[in-house]
Amino acid sequence: MDLSTLLSPDCARCAVAGTSKKKVLEIIGQLAASRLSGTTGFDVFESLLNRERLGSTGIGLGVAIPHGRLASATKPVAILLTLEEPIDFDAIDNQPVDIVFALLVPEDSHEQHLQTLAAVAQRLNDKTCTRALRDASSDQELYELFVK
């Protein structure tokens, strides 16, 4: 999968000050809403929070992949954040999270959603990739490192 079709440069943010899981999900909501017409930041936040209630999307090794479906979405939208300081995300390995990749897809895109999540998880399970993302010093560098 070509990850550059999923993540746009303006949706990659480096060294974000997120003090809690909820705050990070709110930040993602605001960024994603600007890319989704007819969707508010609160709509995105609620979708992500509802998914988190089913179980944490913290996949371990300092990485979380919050995701959700939106009736108002017509295309997938992704947000990539590195956090200034790691936060508790209730990850499966109980380690704090400092890399967050959020994915929002149209409500009826079940198969695409699963395939995209698998591709992103594979990319973020690569320790060389996550090390480089953590070392990124600008939003543009973060974007380029993820999509290359």
From TrEMBL:
Residues 5-148 form the PTS EIIA type-2 domain. One of its GO terms (molecular function) is protein kinase activator activity. NCBIfam families: nitro_reg_IIA. Pfam families: PTS_EIIA_2. Signal peptide: none annotated. InterPro entries: PTrfase/Anion_transptr (IPR016152), PTS_EIIA_type-2_dom (IPR002178), PTS_Nitro_regul (IPR006320), PTS_SugarTrans_NitroReg (IPR051541). Keywords: Transferase. The keyword Transmembrane does not apply. CDD domains: PTS_IIA_fru. GO terms for biological process: phosphoenolpyruvate-dependent sugar phosphotransferase system. It comes from Pseudidiomarina maritima. This is Phosphotransferase IIA-like nitrogen-regulatory protein PtsN. The lineage of its organism: Bacteria, Pseudomonadati, Pseudomonadota, Gammaproteobacteria, Alteromonadales. The keyword Lipid biosynthesis does not apply.
